[in-house]
C-alpha cells in the first residue's frame, strides 16, 4: 500500500480481516480460548481482549480501570503495552461467548465508522504506533496488527490458514517498509551492498535493498546480490514480528555473515 493510503482499499482489507478473525473465533472450542499464545502472558482470550481494546479506543471509548498494576508485569515495557494490558486485565474473566459478542459488536461499530469516513478524514493528522502520520496510515497498521494476531491465534489453536490474500499482502507491505532500516542500520550492511529477500510463498515477492549512502528498498537491481535470503512469506512475517520461528531454516546465499545479521535483526515489532 502506498504512503497515501487508499481509503476504500484499506477499509475493505481491514473489515475483511475482522471477518476472518470472526470465523476463526467462532470455530474455537471453549477450552481453546484458554490456550497460551507465543505472546508473553497472553492466552487466546487475552489477544482478543487486545484487539477489542484497540478498536474500542478508536471508537472513542475510555480505557477501563482494571484495578491491576499492569506496569509491574514483566512483559509490560512501555505505555502502549500498559494500555493493552488494561484491557486484558479488565476482560480476563469474560467467557468465550461474551468475548465473541464484544468482538463482533466493536468491529461492527468500527466498520460503520470507517464506511462514513471521507478521503479527508483518512488524510487527517493522527498519532499512530509508528509515530505521527495520518488516520489512514494508522488503519494500514491496524491491518498488520490484526493479521499478525490472527496468526498468533491460529498457531495457538492449531488452526493454520489465511496465509495469503489481501491481509497477508498488506502485512508484507508493512514489513517491507522497514527493510531499509533493518538492512542498513540494524544489520550494518556495508555501502555498495545489495540484499535480496526472496519470499517463496504462499505470498511470492522479492524485496531488494540497496545500500548507497543509505539503505533503501528498490523495485529491482541489476547489481549482483551481496547476499540472498530465501524463505516462506509466513516465516518472514513471524521473524519480522519477533515471534518464535526457526530462523535457521532460512536459505542464505552469498555473504553468509551479512545474511545471518539480516535474519537475526528482522524483528521490528513485538
Entry summary:
The protein has 270 residues and is an alpha+beta fold. It is 49% helix and 14% strand.
Q: What does this entry look like structurally?
A:
This protein is an alpha+beta fold and 270 residues long. The protein has 2 domains: 7-167, dinb family like domain (Four Helix Bundle (Hemerythrin (Met), subunit A)); 178-264, SCP2 sterol-binding domain (Nonspecific Lipid-transfer Protein, Chain A). The protein contains 10 helices and 7 strands. The protein has a 5-stranded mixed beta sheet. Strands 1-2 form a two-stranded antiparallel ribbon. Strand 1 and strand 2 form a beta hairpin. Helix 1 (7-26) runs antiparallel to helix 4 (96-116). The chain is globular and about 55 Å long.
Amino acid at each position: 500500500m502506498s504512503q497515501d493510503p487508499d481509503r476504500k482499499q484499506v477499509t475493505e482489507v481491514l473489515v475483511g480481516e475482522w471477518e476472518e478473525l470472526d470465523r476463526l473465533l467462532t470455530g474455537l472450542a471453549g477450552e481453546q480460548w484458554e490456550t497460551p499464545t507465543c505472546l508473553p502472558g497472553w492466552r487466546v482470550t487475552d489477544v482478543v481482549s487486545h484487539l477489542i481494546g484497540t478498536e474500542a479506543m478508536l471508537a472513542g471509548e475510555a480505557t477501563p480501570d482494571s484495578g491491576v498494576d499492569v506496569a509491574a508485569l514483566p512483559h509490560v515495557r512501555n505505555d502502549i503495552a500498559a494500555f493493552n494490558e488494561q484491557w486484558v486485565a479488565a476482560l480476563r474473566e469474560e467467557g468465550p461467548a461474551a468475548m465473541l459478542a464484544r468482538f463482533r459488536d466493536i468491529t461492527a461499530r468500527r466498520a460503520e465508522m470507517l464506511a462514513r469516513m471521507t478521503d479527508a478524514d483518512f488524510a487527517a493528522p493522527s498519532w499512530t504506533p509508528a509515530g505521527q502520520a495520518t488516520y489512514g496510515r494508522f488503519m494500514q497498521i491496524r491491518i498488520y496488527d490484526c493479521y499478525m494476531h490472527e496468526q498468533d491465534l491460529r498457531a495457538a489453536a492449531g488452526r493454520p490458514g489465511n496465509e495469503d490474500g489481501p491481509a497477508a499482502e498488506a502485512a508484507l507491505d508493512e514489513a517491507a517498509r522497514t527493510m531499509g532500516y533493518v538492512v542498513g542500520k540494524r544489520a550494518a550492511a556495508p555501502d555498495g551492498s545489495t540484499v535480496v529477500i526472496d519470499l517463496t510463498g504462499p505470498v511470492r515477492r522479492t524485496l531488494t535493498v540497496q545500500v548507497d549512502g543509505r539503505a533503501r528498498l528498490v523495485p529491482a537491481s541489476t547489481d549482483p546480490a551481496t547476499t540472498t535470503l530465501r524463505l516462506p512469506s509466513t516465516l518472514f512475517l513471524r521473524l519480522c514480528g519477533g515471534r518464535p520461528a526457526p530462523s535457521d531454516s532460512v536459505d542464505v546465499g552469498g555473504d553468509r555473515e551479512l545474511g545471518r545479521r539480516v535474519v537475526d535483526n528482522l524483528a521490528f515489532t513485538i
